[in-house]
Amino acid sequence: MLDSITTKVSVGLAGSTSRRSFLGRLGAGVVALAGGPLVAAALRPERAEAYHICGHTYTTDSCPHPYRPLSRVDRFGYPIHPTYGYPVDDKGRIYKSKHQKRSLMCQDLVKKRYPHTGEPRYGGGWSRCCNGRVRRIADCCSYSRTRINGDASVTGYCYSGTRVFCIGYRDTNVRC
In Å, what is the CA distance from 39 to each residue of 30, 57, 61, 141? Predict the structure, then answer.
């Protein structure tokens, strides 16, 4: 009887955690012992600045977007509403007319608001399963050595000497 209860608990625990979450908890425990609880709390994924983008737990912040920090774009790179997916203009209003200003998030909005970046372009990206669909997360790359959140930039998935300035995402219709 006790053996079957232990088995059920073990299977339940294994099913509710992943190796990555287990290793993350283990690492946070080691850091807490070495550096104290303040350091361990700062390393929790929920505390990362860009945790709002499913699957992204690092600190690069979102690109300029009317609904920032939810920097969702269409397949061409134009801002769309983060929940409903309809096109929006630069002020977050429903895009209904060509008279409204609608800028490319990475190439236009980053360049306009952060002129020190040079000519920003999308670099590489990666995919995550979010809400049952594949979500594409993309790096907006520039030659700037500083990210949008003010700290040192990283290479990420950027090409030819560029570095990650900010990130955005696109939801696809592909089930996962």
Answer: 11, 16, 21, 30
